[in-house]
Give the backbone structure.
Amino acid sequence: MLKEREPILEKLSIVFQVLLTIGCFIGAKWITNEFFNPIQGDSMQYNIILFLIVLLWILILDQFSLGGGLRLKMYSIIFIEYLTAIFIGNTLLLSAIVILNLNEISRMVLAIFALLNLITLYSFKFILSAFMKYIRRKGMNYRMILIIADKDSTYFIDRLKETADWGYRIWAIMSDDPVIKSRYNNEYTVLSHEHDISNLIDNKPIDEVIYCKSFFDQNEIQNYIYSCAEVGVVFRMQSQLLNCVKMQSTLSFLNQMPFLTFRNTPDNYLALKVKTFLDFLISLFAVIILSPFLLIIAILIKLDGGPVFFLQKRVGLNGRRFACIKFRTMVVDAERLQASLMSQNEQEGPVFKIKKDPRITKIGRFLRKTSLDELPQFFNVLQGNMSIVGPRPPIPSEVKQYKRWQTRRLSMKPGITCIWQVSGRNNIPFEQWMKLDMQYIDSWSLKLDFIILLKTIKVVFTGDGQ
């Protein structure tokens, strides 16, 4: 779909949002002084934090593309993006306070700042988006387009017709296909390919030419590109190849020769480093805060007899093996008993799962239902073997039975929770489970991790696990 980017306006938007953020921090200090405990801290420390806020928010807003236009985004998605960005920003601020030993900084100021910042930035984007949609519906701020189409272009054309908020108007459709002619001839001007495109864009108010035919001739495409480039008209090409491969693609250059590069794993270096840092930080925080709760669970398991933890060899990033730590939820000789229960397996593929597994202990059934048996895996995250969110780590015997396309789930560090765990777990067939993991890898972002974390919390409190 179309996604217009105006680089200068995007940068200006980020700068303006950073200024709003500075105002939120100053406002948080004032509110704390007026309505809560007066701030006694060192003003220099607050200046350091303000400097860090400017640097971090420029980086984070840019990473989340929160300065760009909003032709196609829903308001709920915008809110989630801001919530995630501000959560990450404030987590990094707290880390900086600890590392730099800025003990005079009031936590109340930071809490009020985070809330003000979320409300202010989301309101700014909401008002801006609503205003732009309003003026587009009134016929302003639109772009006139010429579509070069065939019978497979109907979905794209219909979507443009239905969504006036996007700000695109179809000036004409160029096609010799009878399906296009019969379907759109009464609504739009349908031109034959005999028309000279250079003459059209020279004499008509066309802002963009969009090529969305299924099959094309290289010479034809070159002609369209050059004709548009000569007069500064935008040329866009929608390719069925990109729809089929469903992988991230970028234009790169090797020895000054252009290549369309496809990647099947996330390659955002900075975002992945932020993910690793947050994994460590959140896991350390979780272990410290939950330590009394972990101790209670350990005692209950010990009273039931046998060891507290269950260590199992699992397969991690790119085939690396490690010992996965879980609270023991089964009888001591559970793995030996599995062979006698294979006929009762309810899961397709190489995975062994039984809803009412007779090997599960009483306390183990509760731990599994609430997913609390996974808590010790925060230690795996601290060791660097796992992430908080990612495909679940399989056992070696399962990996040996994978189809070749399924091994791609090992291309990301395994996680404590994943899409599968918050989408039905054992109710999902094995093939669908694998596809969900591929979907996670193909669409990974910090925002997606945050959404999965929120859903995981819901599973824990509602007991939807199995």
About this structure: Residues 1-5 have pLDDT under 50 and may be disordered. The first helix runs from residue 7 to 35. The two ends are 39 Å apart (CA to CA). DSSP finds 16 helices and eleven strands in the chain.
